[in-house]
Every structure is written in structure tokens, then in C-alpha cells.
Amino acid sequence: MSPLLPPEFLFRYSFTAKHVSGLPRRGKTLLNLPAECTLPNFAGLESQPAFGDVRIAWNDRGLGISVSVQGKSQRPVCDPERLGVTDGLRVWIDTRCTQSVHRAGRFCHLFELLPSGGGDAGDRPAATLWPVPRASEDSPLYDTDLLPIHADISAQAYTLEAWLPSEALHGYDPDHQPRLGFFYALQDAELGLQTLSIGPEFPFISDPSLWCTLELVKT
Q1: Among 83, 99, 123, 147, which residue's CB has the most CB atoms within a 10 Å radius?
Q2: pLDDT value of residue 197
Q3: Range 26-46 average pLDDT
Q4: Domain 7-216 = CATH 2.60.40.1190
Q5: Domain boundary assignment for the chain
Q6: Any idea of the CA torsion for 66, 106, 144, 188, to the nearest 10 degrees?
Q7: What is the 3-state secondary structure (H, E, C) of 107-142?
């Protein structure tokens, strides 16, 4: 008999983000985040495979996010004009960690990070800041063409790195607000959907009360 609620819904997860002062890096490598920046994944609670390695780090200038996807048989297909239906990573961030309300406000952000689909030829990585569905108020606009983003793609895998500067994160203030609401969904046409905790049977797309907590700590 299947449980009434999936196991990952029974807990409110909190994760620690590692402080890395030198981000974003100069040269060909944008982030190169170490293994200790890897976010845990709870797909195993529902016997779902985890195909992506997602890492995150922070400093006073912003957040760095990377993902590595293995086990593909074809290159990712991405369309930056269609939210959530092509290969890539969606990231939700609430700079006030308001987990007692069910509608996003001006401190809530939804970034879509794609390994391709950008540039005139569609062969460059792309980043888009979308309004959170059903939000009571949208976060301020930001030109995502200014976001540093890098991707390496092969027939069997891809890696994607993106830097979200503080200017793109309305209300970002690690000294006074060191806890962020955070969630991600990694979409792949071949491999399926990998999320940080709960699955698409719950409205994490629009409900910040379902997001996890990311703690920005200096160690």
C-alpha cells in the first residue's frame, strides 16, 4: 500500500550553504565548486533515481549554483521561451524565507538555467528570471543577460554553472537574513524530473511554504 503522503513531505528540510569568498572565479572556470557544496537529495525516499549533482555556495556578492548531469544519450534540448518544459534547472529563492504563506511575494525569485538555447545560434547557455506563478507581488526585474553562466556539453553529459549576483536577488542580505527559502527542479527529457524534496504532486512551483531552508553560514 502506498503511503498517503510521500516520506519527504513529512519533514521540513534545512541545508547549509558553504561560504566561498572567491566567487565568481576569473578565467574559463566560473565556479568549480568542491564536493562539500553538494546538496543532499531525497529521491531515494521514493525510490526515484538521482541523475544530477547540484551544488551551491555563497558570499556577500551572491549565490553560485552548479549542476552536473550524467547518463544521457543525446545532447540537451532547451528553449528559454518555454518555462519548465525543456532540459535545465529551475531554482526558487526567497530572500526572506517566508514559509508561513502560500503565495510568493516580492522577495521570491524563479530562475531557469539552461545549458543551451541562448545566443543567436541557440548554442549558448541561457538564464531567465520568471515571475513566480500566482505571486501576490513580483520581484523587481533584472536583466538576466548580465548573469554569468557557463556550460560544457557532450553526448553523454553536461555541466552548468551560474552566478546569481546580489543585484538579481531582491532583499539578499546574508548578515541580517542568513536563511533563504530554496527549492530546485532539474528537468531532463531522457532522465525525468529530480527535485530537492517533494515532487510535482505538490504545488512547489508557486507555494513558498513548500520550499526548503538554505542557511548561509561562514565556517
Answers
A1: 147
A2: 87
A3: 83
A4: yes
A5: 7-216
A6: 40
A7: CEEEEEEEEEEECCCCCEEEEEEECCCCCCCCCCCC
For 50-109, the pLDDT digits (tens) are 899 999 999 999 999 999 999 999 999 899 998 888 899 999 999 999 888 999 999 999
d(CA 106, CA 128): 17
Give the residue among 12, 15, 7 at the shortest CA–CA distance from 217.
15
Mean pLDDT of the chain: 91
Q: For residues 63 and 166, give the distance between their C-alpha atoms in angstroms, rounded to a whole number.
A: 8
Residue with the larger pLDDT of the pair 169 and 10? 169
Inter-residue contact 46 to 13 (CB < 8 Å): no
Alpha carbon distance 52, 186 (integer Å): 7
Model confidence pLDDT, tens digit, residues 164-192? 999 999 999 999 999 999 999 999 999 99
